[in-house]
Fold each of these.
Amino acid sequence: MTAPTPSHQLDQLEPVLAGVARAASPDGHRIVFPERDAYHDVVAAHRSAGFEMLADLTAVDYLGHPGRTLPAGVAPERFELVVALLSVSQRRRVRVRVQVPEVDAVVPSLWDLYRGAEAMEREAFDMFGIWFTGHPDLTRILMPEDWEGHPLRKDFGVGRVPVQFKEAPGPR
Amino acid sequence: MTPEAGPGLSSETFEGSQELADRGATAPVELGREAGSVLRLPEGTGVDPSDIDVEYPDDETMIINMGPQHPSTHGVLRLMMELDGETVLRTKPIIGYLHTGMEKTGEELTYQQGATNVTRMDYLSPLNNELVFSLATEKLLGIELPPRAVWIRMLLSELQRVSSHLMWLATNGMDVGSTTMMIFGFRERELVLAFFEKTTGLRMNHNFIRPGGTAADLPDGWEDDVEAILDNVTARLASYDELLTGQPIFRERMEGVGSLSADEALALSATGPILRSTGVAWDLRRMMPYLAYDDVVFDVIVGTYGDNFDRYAIRLNEIRESVRILRQVLEKMPAGDYRVQDKKVTPPPRARIDESMEALIHHFKIFTEGFKVPEGEVYVAVESPRGELGCYIVSDGSSKPHRLHIRAPSFVNLQSLPVMMHGGLVADAVATISSVDPVMGEVDR
């Protein structure tokens, strides 16, 4: 097990997080809301401050959502990239939430920081159509290669099989 | 056929010997595309087209496909492997054959129905899936569970770990050629599943742990049943040691095969027995306790070399630790209610419906439109037998989640497979796949 990170490593987060909106999740973990341009730098700062693991990376399509609570200064966009970072040495979690606009849904890839981002970013690309620049192999991972559309977007319909009843009066 | 073979005809049509053009004839862009999008280096480094010929001449390597219907890939996992003779160079896991859009389905189901959906993801430890979904929902609701519900959940979660690891021992034994172990593992797992059937009504996909508590109380005499399982499993773990742990052939197949360093495991986001096998003592039950894991004594099992044998030893000994936890649960199980009596979340007791109009209304509301969950987002993680099982829920204030995401440990752990298999033999690849313990239902969701 790695030794506990000295506090000066935590201090180096402060300059990077200076202008970044923050909030606390109900379970006491910190949530940061960087701008899309600062996203990669903020994650890189966490990486060097002892957050060794990218626990989770996913996206959310907020289309049709009545309105989420965001800290002041964060303008809501249709997509949101949610990155859960984990520090094994400090037993801490941080959640990074980045607003991604509908047009030009492009974010930098975290693959150069965390190799584990590879499959997770591919999944986010496959399901939401968010493009990760710098990813080595951004292809569909769960859907067939020739699939059209991104299924977890809210405007992608749920497939249904029409049910026919024997005694039904028929279409009106 | 040489030009001299026949008069006239063949000499006109002969265009040289029909062989593959050498690698240099392929444009670098095409070569890069092939190397980048078909196979990646296990270290994840970007591929420079000019490197390929130098490192692995193409007349010596071949790309071979394994799966998705290969018996030892534990479901519909497909691997593309680049082989140099018998040695595996690069591997790319190709997944998605079992993708059924469960996260999309989760957005169509109410929180009440959601547990039936998530329980089908990791079909070898369904109760853990229900647990993490329920914990996330409860965190959004902000409700506190009665202690008995917490301890029942812990009992089931640990029994599930025992059954999942037994199943793994069985299939791993099968993969390295011990059919005896397969029969043993399934035999012991049957004991646990029989108890689950008695408790929840089903052997798998229980839908027993629900937001607000559990579906029912434990059946009468559950202490004796669990006691019998624990005694049985403990006694038989000794025979596994005899059959596998000390056996030279088994050790030869497992030791030093598929090794992974701690840095690699952390960088690749590997969790669970894979991370612990590299020497990192990371177990969410200990490091970020949920349920009542604070109140029980157990050890976190850690390996040293990160090889297949370490992963085997960790899972075997985690069964022992789970047995230890379960004995404490037997002792400390509190009395009380098995679910929170909040009329907005859990249905009222059956008897109340006959005498109270209000109870009838609550019952009707819960089963028609479900309960509403306040707006917000939450990420909750538990330690499943395979690693960190996370659940991210975004609620828009209605009775259905706006977004339901499951961080599936098998999905993430599969990324470390190419690193483990790099430089190993094809025959060992089978054992290494097994040691990752992927459950394809959870990988593809």
Amino acid sequence: MEHYYQPEIECASQEQILAWQNERLVKQVRHVWDNVPYYRKKMEEKGVAPGDVQSVADLHKLPFLTKDDLRDAYPYGLLAAPMRDCVRIQSTSGTTGRRVVAFYTQHDLDLWEDCCARAIVAAGGTADDVCHVSYGYGLFTGGPGLNGGSHRVGCLTIPMSSGNTDRQLQFMVDLGATILCCTPSYAAYLAESIQERGLRDQIKLKAGIFGAEAWSEEMRQDIQNKLGIKAYDIYGLTETSGPGVSFECSAQTGMHVNEDHFIAEIIDPDTGEVLPEGSKGELVFSSITKEAFPLLRYRTRDICVLTREKCSCGRTHVKMCKPMGRSDDMLIVKGVNVFPSQIETVLLEQGYPANYQIIVDRVNNSDTLEVMVEMTPEIFSDSLGRVSEMEKGLVAALKAMLGIYARVRLVAPKSITRSEGKAVRVIDKRKI
Amino acid sequence: MIIQQISVFLENRAGQLLDVTRVLAENEIDMQAINIAETADYGIARLIVATPQRAMRILQEKGFILRLTPVVEATVPDRPGGLNELLSAVAEAGIDIEYMYSAFQGQRNGLAYMVFRVGDAERLEDVLKNIS
């Protein structure tokens, strides 16, 4: 028996969905043209005016937006609504030192939380459920998104945020949590902890909604077996509000994009050409209902396939597969975006040369990040205390930039492998 | 006597120290003292050699990360109480010792040698002169 949060939308005919998209896109282009000089300039440079966009068929005429644009426009350059109407920001890491700031009006928050509610109901959530949210709360969108969605469904919401496993398990058991929302690697970690502590038969979980990082089918099976739950995928980015842009249904064969709010395209990452349904390429989203921070044709850098095959769940919105990789060098470590260029920026600021190597691994189901930095004659000191201080300073600076702890290892020159003269910057040992 | 100590950065990887001693051996550099300070992640090897300038040049060419530091070499009577008397004088003079280690010069003259790293090397030198 399938459940829907907004059945009249989630199961609308494809003609109806297209009609919504056509109407909303035209309005949104006008809204952005009138309020966002940064994007208007891009449109003018491409020779496009609002009148040129009459329907979704004209979407390809509009210029793309990338993380670089968000960096250049930081902080208010892409704001489309008056400040007095904005009630929230959320933020994620950007390349180099600049963060991405997304703005929300109350209306935007309502829509975002509706999308998350759809995900929770698709996973079987009702007002009788207890929803344990272990995504990070604060600037990160995971916690706030699923928290809001859980409220809308009427679940008892436990705003755990991340960390403090003892407390997580205590509440999970004592309050009888039935739905778990967190990153897949944290779910795997909790599953192990539950087994180690012999808590398996005290856990009442029935479903989990996991996202913010890539995870494989093998990992899904592992989590489902260990926790005795059905594990659902969820996808989103801060630039498109947060999680809930798309979500998995009972078929567990891909995530339905909320097409009444987002128009999805697949493009060739090198040429920008829009590719036909079923092609593998870079996922691009246009936000057609957001007011404060509506990005048009935002390039996610995620590689994916879209399909409109009929889904057994009854939902009619287009499905995207799990992202298969990225068209840039961004990593996701512990659910957090990490760009090698950010690490480079910190090293240079701290007086180290940009000779480094990043090693990402997964130990006990938890991501680890290690930065190998070449010691130089200038930095080296005879004093152990001095070298330790510098190392600690680097760890702190990296934490401030990335938001997560990175282990720093000082190495001798030539320890960092070079292939054909070009240094290998990132070694990802995880098998996701 | 103030002498030059060579500090060498050692990554925490097997064979690092061997790389250093191999270079010294190949170039017939005579070592008089060695001390290794370590943390969990890396170490610093401190060397006293007969020809520090030459050794620096050769090690640098081989890609080692180095630092030259002035330290004070002191003679200590090689009998019980020898070090205690010296350290008492140093403490009385209010000199802080950052680290110290023993050295050898192959002479059987009833003397041991200690290497001191202090904030003010000249001052320690004076204190030591006054003891002997």
